[in-house]
Amino acid sequence: MENKAGQGHDEEEQVPLLTPYKMGNFQLSHRIVLAPLTRQRSYGNVPQPHAIMYYSQRTTKGGLLITEATGVSDTAQGYPETPGIWTKEQVEAWKPIVDAVHAKGGIFFCQIWHVGRVSNQGFQPNGQPPISCTDKPLTPQIQSFGIDAAQFSPPRCLSTDEVPQVVNDFKVAARHAMEAGFDGVEIHGAHGYLVDQFMKDQINDRTDQYGGSMENRCRFALEIVEAISNEIGADRVGIRLSPFANYMESGDSNPKALGLYMIESLNKYGILYCHVVEPRMKTVGEKTECPHSLVPMRKAFNGTFISAGGYDREDGNNAVAENRTDLVAYGRWFLANPDLPKRFKLDAPLNKYNRDTFYTLDPVVGYTDYPFLETPKA
Ligand SMILES: Cc1cc2nc3c(=O)[nH]c(=O)nc-3n(C[C@H](O)[C@H](O)[C@H](O)COP(=O)(O)O)c2cc1C
């Protein structure tokens, strides 16, 4: 495993985040990753041409980008105008976006998700209830992605023999991502969505082989990992986890053990990377320092380790320099600073992000209109 930035010391100060890193077969030129960021500009669940500019603005040669969460099936949605990858039309619509990122030398992974019970019947085919590992409903008024009125319909608990069908949806979505030209997929196993719902003991109340023990609760996630690895190759598979978070009422009584169990299991499949959200990101958008640490997971994992959640330039540099992670994913700062790697290189000031436009639908405002650093005239 590659690790640690900056072999040797140049006279000039090395910026650890700006050092190269070999992630499996991918040669990265730096360690600053575009975190998955839902943007709600994919009208009718179809990626739009304006995403070409959005993603290519954030592309650097040898930089890793992860897409916004992308639905695996027609039951996967819980937010308006989020993209999918289950239809031919969606696959075709992703192609020019992927091509644009590749044309600038970027490495592009598609984050695939299913929201499970974080949904309502309005998003579901034929107005059916959302599906989950449970029939326990979410508290209705949770503020979710800036939508105050989010109302969650009580979910329908998947029967044991329906679960493999959802695993298959993930597998087909991964195949579609390959068809669209992506370099790989990231399974969204974080933040209280379907995969996380199965993993967390505060939600999962099943009595079959997908519930109860930690091993059983992780079975769904690992079946997805296995199916996708067999389909597209483990060297193209990443997963995002947030064992310490309790977004969407998805806490666990023993997050440390859960995280380590997942890491040890993932090692058996030899997947490319594990992307873990910092324990300090317990609630959406708020950074609260807390005593847990990702280091045991990082040490136990054989592949590339990506950390995310509340990093700034200094934090990220320290984490890389101290070998606490291989790569750092930046969300809000990358959203507001399309040239974030350049700004970090120069230690230039950052644009502030505007929370009010995170989830609005405009193809430009709060999306592609954040300014780049001015290039000094020669
Ligand atoms: C606007 C917005 C959209 C997000 N969408 C996703 C998403 O689609 N998938 C995901 O795994 N995380 C999502 N997140 C979480 C981010 O990837 C990231 O973990 C979080 O913002 C913390 O990192 P930061 O402090 O660098 O912003 C989102 C966060 C924001 C602010």
UniProtKB/TrEMBL annotation:
Domain named NADH:flavin oxidoreductase/NADH oxidase N-terminal is located at 17-349
Q: What keywords sit in the KW lines?
A: Flavoprotein, FMN, NADP, Oxidoreductase
Q: Which cofactor does it need?
A: FMN
Which InterPro entries would you find in this protein's record?
Aldolase_TIM, OxRdtase_FMN_N, Oye-like
Question: Which molecular-function annotations from GO does this UniProt entry contain?
Answer: FMN binding; oxidoreductase activity
State the similarity comment: Belongs to the NADH:flavin oxidoreductase/NADH oxidase family.
Q: What is this protein called?
A: NADH:flavin oxidoreductase/NADH oxidase N-terminal domain-containing protein
Q: Does the keyword Oxidoreductase apply?
A: yes
